[in-house]
Specification:
The protein has 116 residues and is an alpha+beta fold. The chain contains three helices and three strands, in the order βββααα. A three-stranded antiparallel beta sheet has the order 2-1-3, with no helix packed on it. α2 runs antiparallel to α3.
């Protein structure tokens, strides 16, 4: 089922609309103003990257600047970016796992500072 972007001639807003097929003759209606004069516009599309391209991107040091290894939030942000670059290999629940570990680390840090 294709998703098309339209721009309403009445209110000027863009909308993404799901059509059952590309041959669907139903006239789309603007979800913002219910206008019926919409024109289809070109939209962005996602492009898959090869494993080689992903590895080259990971090896580029300019992609990973600004990481403070002493700041857990910075490391968590880095780990999430790394997971996204690795794609499906890291698993669907990778971000959740990183956040859980961050929470454990923060709690342990709080507990150790309470003891001091």
């Amino acid at each position: 089922m294709p998703i098309y972007e339209y721009k309403c001639r009445s209110c000027g807003k863009k909308s993404s609309l799901l059509l059952r097929t590309h041959k669907d003759k139903t006239r789309p209606v603007c979800p913002h103003c219910q206008g019926k004069e919409l024109r289809r516009v070109y939209s962005r599309f996602a492009m898959g990257r090869s494993d080689e391209d992903r590895m080259e991107r990971l090896a580029d040091p300019s992609q990973w600047g600004g990481i403070d290894e002493n700041d857990p939030k910075s490391v968590m942000k880095w780990a999430k970016r790394m997971g996204k670059e690795m794609g499906d290999e890291m698993g669907e629940d990778f971000d959740q796992m990183i956040e859980e570990e961050f929470e454990k680390e923060a709690k342990a840090s709080d507990d150790s500072s309470d003891e001091a």
